[in-house]
Amino acid sequence: MKKTTRQLQKEQTKDLLVKTAYELFSKRGILNTRMADIAQSAGVSHGTVFLHFDTQETLVTQVITSYCGKIAERTHELANSGGTIREMLSAHLEGIIEFEPFYTRMVIENRLLPANARDAWIHLQSAISFHFSQAIEREPQSNKMDIPLSLLFNMWMGLVHYYLANGDLFSPNGNVIRRYKQTLIENYLKMIEKNHE
User: What is the number of other CB atoms lying within 10 angstroms of the CB of residue 151?
Assistant: First the structure.
């Protein structure tokens, strides 16, 4: 069934609102952005936003679900080759790079997000965990490690999220992950390699 011009315009407006919200969330923060800010930046009336999203929580959830899905998909594409733990860590960071300002906002604000939005965040972390566990299990020395897999994953995520949450200290004028990618990978691998020497 062919869509009408009105249906297409409605879809385009909704897509514009999601993209605009994503950009504003990335710059200002998710909780610091109002529906009126999104309407103004998108060049639509405040009422138009509410035609597509009945509450701000609905819009926040839609944006986070959409972009967490994109980050998970990108990480999946990069990590799906069945490589080493080094390659998986690199794929994870590459998956973040394109979306770093937004991902950083989620790292900082995730505890305050609506429940459905947090579910999308948790789903993204689960997707990363899946690839991480597969890569670790492929490593020949993995059966010699004394650290549980869940803790290895949490150590990696904690390291990455610490750098992102403190980006103003590590890279005040630029992209934290691009700048520290190799440092993060090399030092994490050294930590886990020391565990099974």
Answer: 12
DSSP string, 102-139: HHHHHHHHGGGS-HHHHHHHHHHHHHHHHHHHHHHHHS
Q: How far apart are CA 67 and CA 121, in angstroms?
A: 10
As a whole number of angstroms, the distance between CA 188 and CA 156 comes to: 7
Angle between helices 5-28 and 100-109 (to 10 degrees): 70
Helices 85-97 and 56-79: angle between axes, nearest 10 degrees: 140
pTM above 0.85, yes or no: yes
Give the orientation angle of helix 56-79 with respect to helix 35-42, to 10 degrees.
70
Interior angle at CA 22, CA 18 and CA 27, nearest 5: 150
Residue 146 contacts residue 196 (beta carbons within 8 Å)? yes
- Each of the 197 residues of the chain gets a pLDDT tens digit; together they read 677 888 888 889 999 999 999 999 999 999 999 999 999 999 999 999 999 999 999 999 999 999 999 988 888 887 776 678 898 899 899 989 999 999 999 999 999 999 999 999 999 999 899 989 888 887 766 556 678 888 999 999 999 999 999 999 998 888 999 999 999 999 999 988 765 55
Q: Which of 12, 5, 2, 3 shows the shortest CA–CA distance to 48?
A: 12
Residues 46/28, Cβ–Cβ less than 8 Å? no
